[in-house]
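seq/struct pair 1
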Amino acid sequence: MTSRREFLCHTSLTLAGAAFASRSRADAPASAAGTLVIGGDLKVSRLGFGAMRITGEGIWGEPRDANEALAVLRRAVELGTNFIDTADAYGPYISERLIKEALYPYPRGLLIATKGGQVRPRRDEWLPDGRPQHLRAACEASLARLKLERIDLYQLHRPDPQVPFEDSVGELAKLQKDGKIRHIGVSNVSVEQLAKARAIVKVVSVQNRYNVADRNADDVLAVCEREQIAFLPWAPLAQGAQRRPAPDKRLVALGAVAQARHIDMSQANLAWLLARSPVILPIPGTSRVDHLEDNIGAAKIKLTPGEMAQIG
């Protein structure tokens, strides 16, 4: 017998899904960022949500406020964000579980991307594990946690120097052939590694560190632009650079633009990424609804060519 609490929870999720499905893209705040087609068949908003920070402090353990974490996920979808990025290493495993708890049954058109190939034996350790047997087990575990029959976008979290890169990517190709993965992405790769991956399988996305103050992946972004591969910048808000004693001159210039526009730095950083390249899909993360709404507000901010030149 279904309890009243279970009934109310199911009804709430069903109504939320219906609201998402019925809301036109023109009405959703995230839609102002435009759209991007991933893999030739998955059309998503260009402002996604990164579900790393809905876990506990240090991306470890349960969130401090579970209800707020669930509310953030539901609000992201309500605002028109239909691309959620996660990984089995976030928590570990907790981010994926919370996504399922908050959003299942998933509204039509929602793309959940997850990653495998990195393990967390302890809170402060992030260790690569690109062994084929690990990747297969990780993918199957993510399918179970997310309650999916197939993962729309599965990404290799990072190359493992102890495992031939071709073996790791090759296993993802096998998982795709087995019907467990729809599309394949790679993360934290060089131009050379991206080329190796593309020689084995169709790569539809790259997720590298990139923001206004850290452009070391400019060469990878150039390949993505040329080949129409989605580029998902992690650390999009340049928070690490903002905490340095000597601020980056490009951040200073961005701050001047933000002040003139009367917007905050988070919005300015996201607006810069959206203007930087049409293949960029920012995935800012947060554990608070108010921060989420602030980030989504960046969708409507269009930096001018003059402002982009000012930032450099």
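seq/struct pair 2
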Amino acid sequence: MATLLRKLLKDPKDLWLFAGMVVIAANAGGAWSPIGDVTTIMLWVGGQITALNIIKEVFLSSLVCLLVPLSALSFRLKGNIESPTATDQEYLDAEAIPKFERNLVFIVGVGLLLFVPVFKAITHLPPFMGVLFGVGVIWVLTEILHRDKVETHRKSLSIVRVLQRIDTASILFFLGILLAVSALEAGGHLLQLSSILDDNFESLYVINTIIGIMSSIIDNVPLVAGAMGMYSMEIFPPDHNFWELLAYCAGTGGSILIIGSAAGVAIMGILRIDFIWYLKRISLLALLGYLAGIGVYILLNA
């Protein structure tokens, strides 16, 4: 989406503003889907939630979480958007790939992503196996589509080229965080934290709200991993309100600060967004949407 924004917006201020909304939209959109966000995926893989139930219970809250800041920001924006002029090379690159091939790869790719929950339900294998299966299908499809193209052009469109551009540093970053959380769980520190929360806050809604706000500071991935270690499924069985609201709060609470989610960290690196600028312009909007979504969930489930 950051790459798309660069092609749509010329003014750097507009670019950052729209990018801030992309962070909120990405996290809100990922919270209600079992394959939409790392935090929800973790709960789905761990058995705390099921695919259809999380979609049904969290979708409206996630939608409100996006619509509230989007509506507030829409009243402030006036005038037309100035788009950058595409270069001749960009036109040539776009025309070099037939429309049929572009649409086919797009439709098959989206279809394979949506197939991941079905793959898990049928085979009972981990979701990453379904994702790897989808990559394999796309790999074979693109090799067939581009087999007659010029060698240099074919290589630029291959899956190998895509794999070379993976952000390995971000993957290792989250791997390190999860290793640290596992160490805290093994040492009993997460159990102590859960005891502190339980002793001071009786409502699971308040506990999840605090976890979501904390995720904007610490990052939502380790917070969910920590919560999964703090609370067992004997206390909260699968599809309990606690896990559903945790998926929402951890997923969307990370939008309050740009360092609170994978989407925020990624777009901050790509577009060089300033932390203080995001804090002044986007954080309050994200907080309003976050609290509004929690309110909707409580009204529907309390």
